[in-house]
């Protein structure tokens, strides 16, 4: 039936694809706003945090404004690398307590340090920096590093990976793997 519509109105696929993408973005944007409920990302922004602390694909969340208890839900576990050196892993559910500039008692997010996984237990905003604590140690990063939501599997720099995947699907080939 899709080809009938294209032939009937003499529309090219170049016009249909952008229309479908715009429609999909509109639908996804309105899902989080049912009953005027903000998205999980907007809740983070309300507490002075960037949306990039959560990966793309949050399917829902719970938030109790009186206690600050926050839970975000993913469709499955998620992992990716940041800045080519830090590997992050998210569980299906991420929990913590939100207050202005602080996420305390964080559960469900871990970072790989050298050869072991360590839970990130707190995130604090200090001016234009975010401080990540793993309990006895911590590290600071610029706020701007988290303005974009990472994507499971590839992080925030997915363009090369996505383009390669699209080319592979387009030509029906698998990419060559070589070792040096």
Automatic annotation (TrEMBL):
Coiled coil: none annotated. Residues 1-32 form the signal peptide. Keywords: Signal. InterPro entries: At5g01610-like, DUF538. This is Uncharacterized protein.
């Amino acid at each position: 039936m899709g080809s009938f519509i294209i032939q009937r109105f003499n529309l090219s696929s170049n016009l249909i694809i952008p229309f479908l993408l715009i429609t999909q973005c509109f639908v996804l944007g309105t899902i989080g706003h049912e009953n005027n409920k903000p998205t999980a990302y907007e809740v983070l922004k309300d507490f002075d945090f960037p949306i990039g602390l959560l990966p793309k694909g949050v399917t829902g969340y719970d938030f109790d404004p009186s206690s600050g208890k926050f839970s975000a839900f993913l469709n499955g576990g998620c992992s990716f690398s940041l800045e080519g050196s830090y590997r992050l892993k998210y569980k299906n559910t991420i929990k913590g307590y939100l207050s202005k500039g602080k996420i305390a008692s964080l559960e469900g997010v871990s970072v790989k340090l050298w050869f072991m996984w360590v839970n990130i237990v707190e995130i604090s905003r200090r001016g234009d920096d975010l401080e990540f604590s793993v309990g006895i140690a911590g590290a600071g990063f610029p706020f701007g590093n988290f303005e974009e939501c990472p994507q499971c599997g590839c992080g925030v720099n997915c363009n090369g990976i996505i383009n390669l995947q699209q080319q592979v699907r387009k030509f029906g080939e698998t990419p060559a793997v070589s070792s040096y």
